[in-house]
């Protein structure tokens, strides 16, 4: 349809996609076989029998933690530099087809290091995927390293130190830090020292907050982390005062509508606070989060929002402009995209 073509053509920026969340069951099985990694015993976990049975299971996530248990098993098949590169390249091909011009992508190094994969294997593989997307598609890309909240903060500190010592932030191999994984349970400010160091070095900062957790998680990300963006942030609907502050401070929310329904944050896309955010002047981008697990990439998210909210062309232009302006990219590139 006409609106679908308009959404396809809209110059999109993606700010919230986990590269490990782009691992399709097909690639998971291929890499497991190639690398000799065993997936769970199918006697006990029949959903690991085939890509088809996994896809079926992915239709029934009950929570963020239920999803994460699959996400962390899936990524265990990633072993060699070429695996990381192939994963990133698969994502960029899909993103390009969906009309993404600029992508800032997350990855979770701690999980890979814990499995004995070298930090450099992970980073050099993902960087190679990014450079290929830049060369073949003229996309701009940025890598954001996430710390995971279910592992000790000392592990996060180690991986941050490795990245700083390798000069990855200065060289541009890495562009910022984030925090992801389980929300309710771990301390809200567990990476406070790392974020303070990042702030003092001028390293960009974002954090997942207010996905399953209440607005106090968002306040902690803004205050304890001096986070410049909030990933998800949907529970802002429970704090009108914080919502006003986020609007006034022009903090970009990276919203993932399909993810929110798949992980039962809302029972339908129409409950995602798109209208509330637009009316309150809260800036947000629309993103895919873990597209291989949630059944669709960024354009599917744009189209699902359109079906539920019937936005005007002007509103879509506002969303596209806010996501360009909220990107961590040079002004010259923003001007090109606008
Ligand atoms: N929330 C928290 N951590 C994550 C997510 C998410 O939606 N996806 C991958 N890691
Ligand atoms: Zn996420």
Automatic annotation (TrEMBL):
| Compartment(s) where it occurs, according to its Swiss-Prot or TrEMBL record | Cytoplasm; Nucleus
Which residues are recorded as binding substrate? Answer: 290
Enzyme Commission number: 3.5.4.2
Q: Which residues form the active site?
A: 211 (proton donor)
Q: What domain of life does the native source organism fall in?
A: Eukaryota
Q: Which PROSITE patterns match?
A: A_DEAMINASE
Key words of the record: Cytoplasm, Hydrolase, Metal-binding, Nucleotide metabolism, Nucleus, Zinc
A single GO CC term, please?
cytosol
GO function terms (MF aspect): adenine deaminase activity; zinc ion binding
Cofactor, free-text remark: Binds 1 zinc ion per subunit.
Q: Which InterPro entries match?
A: A/AMP_deam_AS, A_deaminase_dom, ADE, Ado/ade_deaminase, Metal_Hydrolase
- Its GO biological process terms? adenine catabolic process; hypoxanthine salvage; nucleotide metabolic process; purine ribonucleoside monophosphate biosynthetic process
Its EC top class is hydrolase
- Adenosine deaminase domain segment(s): 11-338
**Catalytic activity annotated for this protein?**
adenine + H2O + H(+) = hypoxanthine + NH4(+)
A Pfam cross-reference name: A_deaminase
Q: Does the keyword Zinc apply?
A: yes
- Residues the UniProt record annotates as site (Important for catalytic activity): 232
**Residue numbers binding Zn(2+):** 16, 18, 208, 289
Required cofactor(s): Zn(2+)
Q: What does this protein do?
A: Catalyzes the hydrolytic deamination of adenine to hypoxanthine. Plays an important role in the purine salvage pathway and in nitrogen catabolism.
Q: Which family does it belong to?
A: Belongs to the metallo-dependent hydrolases superfamily. Adenosine and AMP deaminases family. Adenine deaminase type 2 subfamily.
Name recorded for this polypeptide: Adenine deaminase
Q: Which organism is it from?
A: Talaromyces atroroseus
Taxonomic lineage from the root? Eukaryota, Fungi, Dikarya, Ascomycota, Pezizomycotina
């Amino acid at each position: 349809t006409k609106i679908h073509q308009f959404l396809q053509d809209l110059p999109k920026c993606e700010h919230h996609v986990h590269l490990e969340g782009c691992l399709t069951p097909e690639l998971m099985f291929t890499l497991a076989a190639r690398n000799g990694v065993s997936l769970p015993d199918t006697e006990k976990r029949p959903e690991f029998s085939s890509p088809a049975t996994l896809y079926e299971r992915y239709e029934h996530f009950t929570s963020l933690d239920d999803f994460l248990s699959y996400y962390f098993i899936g990524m265990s098949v990633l072993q060699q530099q070429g695996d990381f590169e192939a994963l990133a390249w698969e994502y960029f091909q899909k993103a390009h087809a969906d009309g993404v011009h600029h992508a800032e992508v997350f990855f979770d190094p701690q999980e890979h290091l814990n499995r004995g994969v070298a930090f450099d294997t992970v980073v050099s593989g993902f960087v190679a995927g990014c450079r290929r997307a830049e060369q073949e598609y003229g996309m701009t890309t940025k890598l954001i390293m996430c710390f995971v909240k279910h592992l000790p903060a000392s592990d996060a500190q180690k991986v941050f130190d490795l990245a700083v010592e390798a000069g990855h932030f200065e060289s541009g191999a890495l562009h910022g830090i984030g925090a992801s994984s389980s929300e309710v349970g771990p301390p809200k400010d567990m990476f406070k020292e790392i974020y303070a160091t990042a702030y003092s070095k001028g390293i960009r900062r974002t954090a997942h907050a207010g996905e399953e957790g209440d607005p106090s998680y968002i306040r902690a990300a803004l205050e304890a982390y001096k986070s410049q963006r909030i990933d998800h942030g949907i529970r802002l609907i429970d704090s009108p005062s914080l919502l006003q502050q986020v609007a006034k401070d022009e903090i970009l929310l990276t919203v993932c509508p399909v993810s929110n329904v798949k992980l039962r944050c809302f029972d339908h896309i129409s409950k995602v606070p798109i209208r509330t955010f637009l009316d309150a002047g809260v800036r947000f981008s629309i993103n895919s989060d873990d597209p291989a697990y949630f059944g669709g990439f960024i354009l599917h998210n744009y189209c699902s929002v359109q079906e539920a909210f019937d936005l005007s062309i002007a509103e879509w232009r506002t969303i596209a402009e806010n996501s360009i302006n909220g990107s961590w990219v040079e002004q010259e590139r923003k001007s090109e995209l606008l």
